[in-house]
Amino acid sequence: MATSSSASKAGKTAAVKRQAATRAAPAKRPAAKRPAAKRRAVRAPSLGHAGDAIKHGVADTLKQVRSIEGEIAQLARRTVSEALSAAGSAARELAAVVRDVLAGAVQAAETAGSELTVSIKGAARGTIAGVHDARGNVSRAASEIVKASIKQGNRVGAEIGAVVRSALEGIAEGMAEAGESASAIVKTSARDALATARDISSLAAQAVQQVVRGMAEGIDEVVKSHRAAKAPAARRAPARKTASVRHAT
After folding, report:
1. How many domains does the chain contain in total?
2. Which of 148, 222, 223, 249 is most buried by its number of CB atoms within 10 A?
């Protein structure tokens, strides 16, 4: 009995000591989190007189290129719409008109010594919009655009990858102007472009394949940027006043 009582007392004494030690020990504070390092914004380099002159000169040139492309697109749209309205929008007539327009655009760039890709992109953009205006088959027109662009580009010795990129971007922008979805038609056109390039050479097919792979990811951005570029111009355009017609009594 004495042994058990002494053991009990020793156990109680140890428990009391542990409680006292726990009370005396300061509570551990959670480790303070370090603030996340802020990424420094990359500043554009300060330009001197020569750099500033180049900046403004190149910007003006790019605006002029965009304006020329827009004029080509408007001409192609009007021409295609009128041609299809007169000849009909059957598959044979549509294909002939599209091939004729692209051939004319390439020959114009060749004669004037201007950038071929600008001419192709503007013609492709306007052709899609013109076919839409004439209620033609837009998907068939897009297919004919890439085929004609590749054949005409190969005829003049142009870089096929750049030609295909310009044609697909023009198709996407034309679809945006027509208010239709671009993704499905551009993907179909890309397959037609690859098949046409294979008939030319393996190098042409590789170049087109690289372009198609990149365009599949960036086509939505092309459409968004085109719509964003047209939005300010639409806001600046003055509203047309409708003239009131008086009927004679």
Report:
1. 1
2. 148
